[in-house]
Amino acid sequence: MNPGSSGFFDGLRHVVEGLRLLSKPGVRILVLIPLCLNVLFLLGAFFLLDSVLEVLLDRYLGGWPGFIRTIVEVLATISLLFILCFLSSLLVNVFAAPFTSALSAAGERHLRGDAVAVDEGATWGALLKEIGHGFAAEMRKLRYILLRALPLLLLSLIPGLNLAAPFLWIVFGAWMLCMEYLDTPLTNHGVVFPAVMQEMRRHRRLAFGFGAGMVILTAIPILNFVAVPVGVLGATSLYCCSLREHG
C-alpha cells in the first residue's frame, strides 16, 4: 500500500488489513477478550431490539395502515440496530481498553517490523496502572458523541423527516467509529482526544472511508462479532501506513 494514500477507498482498505492481521502470531491471543465482550454486548443488543421494538410499534402505530407500519418498522429496525451495534462497540472499547491497546501494539509490530516505537510490555503496564484515566477519557468521548447523537435521535422520531434518519446515522456512525478506533493507536503514541479529531479533520476522506468500512462490517451478521478487534487493527494500519507518514 502506498504510505501516502489518503483517499476514501484507501480508508476502506485499512479495514481489510485489519481482517488480515487477526490471524497473525502474537495478535490472535489478544483478540479473544474484545471478541468475547463484543459477542456478549451484541447478543444483548439483539435481544433488546427484538423484545422492545414490537412493543413500541404496537403502542404507537397500532392503528396505522399496514404499509405505513411496515415502512416505519423497517426504518426503525435499521436505525435501532445500527445504534445498538454502535453503542456495543463503544462499551467494548471502554471495558477492554487495556486489551485493545495491547492489540494495537501487537498489530503495529507486524506492520512495521520489530523496531517499533511502542513496546507491548510498557503499553500493558502503563494502561493497567491508569485504567481510571483511560475510563475518564472514554467518558469524554462518550459525552462528545452523545451531544451530537441526541439531535439525530430526535430527528429519527419526527414523521417524514425520519425517512432520512438511517442514512444520517450511517454518515454519523462512520465518523464516530473512525474516531473510536483511531483513538487507540494514537493514544499509544501520546496523541489523546480531542487531538484525535484534529487528525481526522486533516484526513477527512481517509477517515470517512475507514469509518464506512467499519459500518459495513458492523452491519454484516457473524462478521460483526469481530468488528472491535478488526477496527483496532485496521485503525493501527491507518495510523502506521497513512497518518504517521504525513506527520
Q: Can you put this structure into words, describing what you see?
A:
The protein is mainly alpha-helical. It has one domain. It has ten helices and no strands. It has helices at residues 8-21, 28-61, 66-95, 97-112, 120-129, 131-156, 165-188, 195-202, 204-219, 227-246. Helix 2 (28-61) crosses helix 4 and helix 7 (165-188) packs across helix 10 (227-246). The radius of gyration is 19 Å and the shape is globular. The model is unreliable at 115-124 (pLDDT under 50).
Helical stretch tally: 10
Class of secondary structure makeup: mainly alpha
Distance between the ends: 17 Å
Total beta strand runs: 0
Q: Helicity, in percent? A: over 70%
- Give the amount of beta strand, in percent: under 5%
Number of domains: 1
Q: What profile does the largest beta sheet have?
A: none
The shape, in one word, is globular
Secondary-structure element pattern, one letter each: HHHHHHHHHH
Gyration radius, rounded: 19 Å
The averaged pLDDT comes out at: 79
Poorly predicted regions are 115-124
